[in-house]
Amino acid sequence: LLENFETYSGNTIINAGTLSLDDLGSISNTPVITLSSGGKLNVSARTDGTFELVAGQTLKGSGTVIGNLTEDAGATVAPGAAGIGAITVNNGVTLAGTTVMKVDGAVGTNDVLNVSQTLTNGGTLTVTALTAPTSGQTFKLFSAGTYTGAFAQTNLPTLSSGLSWNAANLNLNGTISVTGTAAGPTTNANITKVSLSGANLI
Predict the structure, then answer these.
(1) If you average pLDDT over residues 35-41, what whole number do you get?
(2) Cα 130 from Cα 136, distance rounded (Å)
(3) Are strands 138-140 and 175-180 parallel, antiparallel or unpaired?
(4) How would you class 94 by CB atoms within 10 Å of its CB: exposed for 0-12, middle for 13-18, buried for 19 or more?
């Protein structure tokens, strides 16, 4: 339980159990907060009931924030680590920094930010692909009680020729999808010249 402003500047890893911030408790000097599966960051007893992720900080991993989450400009929310993961916030979330998500086309999965109440989109959304998505796939990046706001900038991974992203529902239900038909290999080659070189036809 942390009740005051903490000045340590190392990373914070919550492997299991709960790290609670009470009253004016703060860890704003730690650059990276990692929530391991089963790890919880409880800010519900803070005066404002909010964990404010300030510029230069990153929240990542697969765990739970109990309370509200605010991502300031210059801060980063990135569910998962090297692989797919999910961060759950049991109150509201306001995004104004950079939110980084991953999709995996081979198995049709993706990182998720679960929000029990209102998700307010803003700032920049950057999506990367572990493996290439294919036509017809839909990825639900955000699951919230209600959605509001909009991302100022959206960076989506490059798709195969003939495919395109449909992000029309991103700010409505948290999904992006792949549309179109991937271009196939060329099958009608034109042979314009044939010559014999030794035993080889070239």
Answers:
(1) 95
(2) 17
(3) antiparallel
(4) buried
